[in-house]
């Protein structure tokens, strides 16, 4: 077992020697994990070591941004937490697929590049913007679309630019549940409706996970797998409420 003998430096402080040792240790762990059978106990232990070291390293990039969301955004903390959860959910799969190549850079560089990409995904997940039905509300082009309220949620984004009353549509959809998605049990006793409600309230997966006493990475992954099907169902339902064109 690889033992960690160094103390991580404070966030952002330059320390070439510790960074070099961190990369060497991480590279050893990741390459070893990539050589192990994914279902083996050794693989799981190696992944746990990698995750522990990454989380304790203080070397995950702290300042992330999109074109219109920067570190001074009122919900930046939620966006950042969600991105890290997505990263840690992605990492075991990436290692299982043997996607890390030491010839292309250090482990932390590899992870931080992915984190930067996932930050944009986290912003979209928590705001509900950039979905196929949110026409005219593109988070990456707000300068052209106008200001997006800080508390924008998936439901209000879905109902953007519609004359229908959003609260009434949601009430009717929940009552009818036309495709049976809301009552779908997605994990243990957790229903999809609970995840959607949390997102609509602007709640992060971390906070919901604490409330439900489950792993936040699991919730993020479940939501990501189910959201497109749910949004497509709502899009069809919303269309059915609109009067036919004359």
Question: Could you walk me through the main structural features you see in this protein, from its secondary elements to its overall organization?
Answer:
It is a single chain. The chain is mainly alpha-helical. It folds into two domains: 16-127, no CATH class; 139-241, no CATH class. Helix content is 57%, strand content 2%. The protein has ten helices and two strands; from the N terminus they run H-H-H-H-H-H-H-E-E-H-H-H. The protein has a two-stranded antiparallel ribbon. A hairpin with a 2-residue loop joins strand 1 (185-187) and strand 2 (190-191). Mean pLDDT is 75; it is low at 1-8 and 130-153.
* Helix content, binned percent: 55-70%
Number of helices: 10
Query: Which regions are unreliable across 5 or more consecutive residues at pLDDT < 50?
Result: 1-8, 130-153
Average pLDDT metric: 75
Radius of gyration, whole Å: 21 Å
Distance between the termini: 72 Å
Main sheet summary: 2 strands, antiparallel
Oligomer: single chain
Shape: elongated
Q: Roughly what fraction of the amino acids lie in strands?
A: under 5%
What's the arrangement of strands in the largest beta sheet? Answer: 1-2
Q: N-to-C SSE series?
A: HHHHHHHEEHHH
């Amino acid at each position: 077992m690889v033992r960690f003998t160094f103390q991580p430096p404070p966030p952002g402080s330059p320390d070439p020697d510790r960074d070099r040792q961190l990369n060497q240790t991480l590279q050893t762990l990741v390459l070893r994990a990539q050589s192990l059978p994914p279902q083996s106990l050794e693989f799981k232990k190696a992944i746990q070591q990698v995750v522990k070291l990454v989380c304790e390293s203080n070397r995950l990039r702290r300042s992330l941004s999109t074109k219109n969301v920067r570190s001074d955004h009122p919900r930046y903390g939620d966006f950042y937490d969600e991105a890290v959860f997505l990263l840690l959910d992605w990492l075991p799969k990436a290692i299982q697929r043997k996607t890390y190549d030491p010839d292309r850079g250090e482990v932390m560089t590899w992870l931080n590049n992915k984190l930067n990409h996932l930050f944009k995904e986290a912003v979209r997940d928590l705001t509900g913007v950039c979905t196929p039905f949110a026409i005219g509300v593109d988070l990456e082009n707000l300068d052209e679309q106008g200001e997006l309220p800080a508390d924008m949620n998936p439901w209000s984004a879905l109902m953007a630019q519609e004359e229908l009353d959003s609260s009434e549509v949601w009430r009717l959809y929940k009552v009818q549940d036309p495709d049976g998605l809301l009552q779908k049990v997605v994990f243990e006793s957790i229903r999809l409706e609970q995840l959607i409600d949390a997102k609509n309230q602007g709640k992060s997966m971390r906070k919901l996970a604490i409330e439900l006493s489950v792993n936040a990475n699991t919730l993020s992954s479940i939501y990501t797998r189910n959201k497109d099907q749910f949004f497509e169902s709502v899009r069809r339902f919303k269309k059915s409420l609109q009067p036919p064109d004359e």
